[in-house]
């Protein structure tokens, strides 16, 4: 799914749904975050993504807050990602909620 909005805009929109920035180029869903090991975020699906020095402390703080407060108060579904496409193969995902693990900005 592509969007004309910047990743910064998405970071702000997704904060309340348990997402956290781990670098300038990526955002993770804290629901799928396990731990940080050797400056990499380890996710439940086995992915290991680099965490910038600037985001290390923020990731720890956000995850602790999510586990203490947010996981019980977080909505059961992630926000619906607006997607309009003329491609009939993509029709089935329009107007449906899903829980992405990672969101990357394409360069």
Could you explain the architecture of this structure?
This protein is an alpha+beta fold and 107 residues long. Helices cover 27% and strands 22% of the residues. It is built from 2 helices and 6 strands, in the order H-E-E-E-E-E-H-E. The chain has helices at residues 7-14, 53-73; strands spanning 19-23, 26-29, 33-37, 40-43, 48-50, 102-104. The strands form 2 sheets. It has a 3-stranded antiparallel beta sheet with strand order 1-2-6. A 3-stranded antiparallel beta sheet has the order 3-4-5, with no helix packed on it. Strand 4 and strand 5 form a beta hairpin. The model is unreliable at 75-85 and 89-97 (pLDDT under 50).
DSSP strand count: 6
Overall pLDDT confidence: 75
SS summary, helix count: 2
- Strand residue content: 15-25%
Which structural category fits the helices and strands? alpha+beta
* Terminal CA distance: 14 Å
Whole-number radius of gyration?
14 Å
The topology string of helices and strands comes to HEEEEEHE
In the predicted model, the low-confidence regions spanning at least 5 consecutive residues are 75-85, 89-97
User: Which strand order do you get reading across the main beta sheet?
Assistant: 1-2-6
Shape: globular
**What composes the largest sheet?**
3 strands, antiparallel
Give the fraction of residues assigned to helices.
Answer: 25-40%
């Amino acid at each position: 799914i592509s969007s004309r909005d910047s990743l910064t805009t998405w970071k702000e929109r997704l904060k309340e749904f348990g997402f956290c920035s781990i670098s300038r180029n990526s955002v993770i869903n804290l629901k799928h975050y396990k731990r940080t090991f050797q400056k990499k975020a380890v996710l439940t699906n086995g992915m290991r993504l680099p965490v910038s020095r600037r985001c290390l402390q923020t990731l720890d703080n956000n995850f602790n807050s999510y586990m203490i407060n947010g996981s019980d108060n977080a909505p059961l579904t992630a926000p619906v990602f607006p997607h309009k496409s003329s491609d009939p193969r993509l029709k089935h995902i329009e107007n449906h909620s899903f829980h992405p693990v990672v969101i990357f900005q394409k360069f």
